[in-house]
Design goal:
CATH topology of the largest domain: Rossmann fold
Radius of gyration: 24 Å
Structural class: alpha/beta
Number of strands: 5
Strand content: 5-15%
Number of helices: 15
Oligomer: single chain
Helix content: 55-70%
Shape: flat
CATH superfamily of the largest domain: P-loop containing nucleotide triphosphate hydrolases
CATH architecture of the largest domain: 3-Layer(aba) Sandwich
Distance between the termini: 42 Å
Order of helices and strands: HHHHHEHEHHEHEHHEHHHH
Strand order of the largest sheet: 2-3-4-1-5
CATH class of the largest domain: Alpha Beta
């Protein structure tokens, strides 16, 4: 088992620290165990390592989705490019699970001058600006005003793009200070989120006109259509191409639901050693909230 673990670590590039965290065995104990120097009872370590290797081998054979340029991705890429090149403020919004996060992550991956922040519930202006400050190679220390001045100085004439994903979580103060960065540094900003984002930018009574008037381009993204689903299946699960209609019917064009449905259907077919068919898809769909 020691040799198997060593092989696994070498093939996957996994450190012993990572194995320690995954198994719950202290680094010292597992290090001694690997090197044949552990003096205590080894049953617990043997079981933990054995279970870890079984799990990881199962993960290796799992269905893996790949990035596909769906209509959603194309729309987000187009808006991001406009914001990036023309230094505009842009907004992309749509329901949950359409692939917005995957799309902006891919855009940032392809464009290394992009600063991508994923906002969370409870994000304050200070937290947001601390994150941006750190992404610019700065310390992330100081009050909001000091952080903003540093960020403006660092970004001025840089032609970079800031993308805030799940931007509906940002309070008005954070959005207003982003506007100040846009005005003073001249960089593009793309806000991505749920439909609530648009309402937040306008204000309940339209009182945030100074902010919303800065938005130069806006796009609502819609669920996947049949062509999108065909592209995804063709790239990631080609043996299911004839079942496009069934995947569309069950997923409703929701990327997240579709991905889970494909992954579980693929696994179920492999476990039963049967060809993937509509009966299997319908069966695994019962375990999803759609």
């Amino acid at each position: 088992m020691k040799q198997e673990l060593k092989r696994f670590m070498e093939e996957r590039g996994v450190s012993l620290h990572a194995v320690s965290r995954a198994t719950g065995i202290s680094y010292t104990a597992i290090s001694l165990w690997v090197n044949g120097k552990y003096k205590g009872k080894v049953d617990k370590i043997n079981d933990a390592v054995n279970n870890f290797l079984i799990r990881e081998n199962e993960r290796k054979n799992l269905y893996r989705s790949e990035f596909v340029e769906t209509t959603v991705a194309k729309n987000i890429f187009d808006i991001a490019k406009i914001c990036h090149v023309n230094s505009e403020i842009g907004v992309c919004y749509g329901k949950a699970g359409l692939g917005k996060t995957v799309s902006v992550s891919e855009y940032a991956k392809q464009n290394t001058d992009v600063i991508l922040i994923e906002a969370d519930l409870g994000f304050t202006a200070k937290i947001l600006f601390t994150e941006i400050h750190k992404r610019l190679g700065l310390e992330g220390a100081g009050n909001v005003y000091t952080l903003m001045l540093d960020i403006i100085q660092k970004l001025k004439n840089s032609n970079r793009l800031i993308i805030i994903d799940e931007a509906e979580h940002l309070p008005y103060k954070a959005l207003e200070l982003l506007r100040r960065i846009y005005d003073k540094a001249g960089v593009g900003i793309l806000l991505v989120g749920m439909p609530k984002l648009v309402a937040n930018l306008r204000g309940q009574k339209g009182q945030y006109e100074q902010l919303y008037s800065r938005v130069g381009v806006s796009k609502e993204v819609n669920p996947l259509d049949k062509t999108d689903i065909q592209k995804i299946i063709d790239k990631t699960l080609p043996e299911a191409f004839d079942m496009t209609e069934k995947f569309l019917e069950i997923s409703g064009g929701n990327t997240r639901v579709l991905t889970k449905l494909m992954a579980r259907a693929d696994k179920a077919a492999k476990l039963s050693e049967s060809p993937l068919d509509e009966e299997i898809i319908e069966e695994v769909a019962k375990m999803l909230i759609v």
